[in-house]
Amino acid sequence: MGLLNYVIRRLILMVVVLFGVSLLVFSIMMIIPPGQRVAIYVHGEKVTPDQMEALIQKYGLRDPAPVQYFRWLKNIFKGEFGFSVTASAPVIEGFKRYFPTTLELVLYSTPLIILVGVWLGTIGAVNKDKPADHVTRIFAIVGYSLPTFWLGLLLLMILYGYFGIFPPGVLSNEGKDVLFSEEFKRYTGLITIDGILNWRWDMVWDGLYHLILPIINLVILNSALILRLMRSSMLEALGQDFIRTATAKGADRRTIINIHARRNALIPVITVSGILFAGLMAGMVITETIFTREGIGRWMARAALQLDVPAIMFNTLFLGLIFVGVNLIVDIVYAYIDPRIRLN
User: Which of 94, 82, 61, 95 has its CA nearest to residue 309?
Assistant: First the structure.
């Protein structure tokens, strides 16, 4: 019951946090003049000043803030988020169009980022001040320091420009023809998953082939932080008394490293991994732009440049929801790894 009670408390706190996020998002929206917020209701159409004023009065955009806030909440629960000019469709439809591209990249890259960072960090800590440690530290410094656009362009020039492999984009021209054909059913919007569900392994390979380059880019850049954190946390764990006790009792080195030290060292890594996942879910503007992938990041970049208020506000709220949800999952994993946390 200890873990269950802990989860229930976190869920109650999550509701409070989401309420605060909604207040913050609404406060930001209230800074925008009513004339620009009318864009939520005009569906990208051109309106005259008189029509704009009529819309402001119709939707109560000059009403007191509390009245507007509860009206806004009501629209959110009804799924009415307005019209996105940059998507040329309602915000929800734009989100359904762009989100699967981002989600697919995140689902494949995040596990690799964590595994590579944890693996290299463990190697560096176990071989402290040896050649293997120096190599991992150089990798961490280089990966952490490289600009995203520079590494992305370098990968494109070498692997695609010179060797002609791993092209940018989402699919080949043949794959796009299949994707938009009537025989190919779009169940999830994720190309590789839909390819499996349609038994089209050529589509699965096509999607993965176009994912390799952005995944390499993200793994090199983001695993560096996990590596450095894992190394320092592992070194601290290896110096604890329980490690010396396990060694004195005759435990083999592999058991000490993998069971005793690594499990304790993973606690701070989990926090950073959760934040990393949430950040990637918010959209990778530079990565998606360089590799010409139409995801949340590119959509939000266009929305910001064109003052697409409905799209910006929806994705701000979505980002808050992602971070709150990820923090809840991280707290539950904490409680599973370290039962002492449930008592705090």
Answer: 82
Say what the alpha-carbon torsion angle 133, 280, 152, 300 is, to the nearest 10 degrees.
Answer: -160
Amino acid identity, position 161: G
Sequence-ordered strand ranges (E) for the chain: 83-84, 89-90
Exposure pattern of 294-309 as b/e (b: 16+ CB <10 Å)?
bbbbbbbbebeeeebb
Within its chain, how far is the Cα of 17 from the centroid? 19
218/344 Cα distance (integer angstroms): 36
What is the three-class DSSP state of 333?
A: helix
Strand-pair partners of 89? 84
Mean pLDDT of 193-201: 92
H-helix or E-strand spanning residue 287: helix 285-290
Q: Distance (Å, rounded) from C-alpha 309 to C-alpha 36?
A: 8
Give whole-number Cα distances, 225 to 141, 147, 228, 272, in Å: 9, 14, 5, 9
Angle value at C-alpha 343, between 338 and 344, nearest 5 degrees: 95
The conformation of residue 84, written as its DSSP 8-state character, comes to E
Amino acid found at 246: A
Q: What is the pLDDT of residues 267-313, one digit of tens each?
A: 888 888 888 888 888 768 888 889 989 899 889 888 888 878 788 88
Check if the beta carbon of residue 277 is closer than 8 Å to that of residue 106: yes
φ, ψ dihedrals at 83, nearest 5°? -110, 130
Token representation of residue 148:
């995203």
Gap between the Cα atoms of 229 and 118, Å rounded: 9
CA angle 96, 98, 100 (to 5 degrees): 75
Average pLDDT over residues 22-49: 74
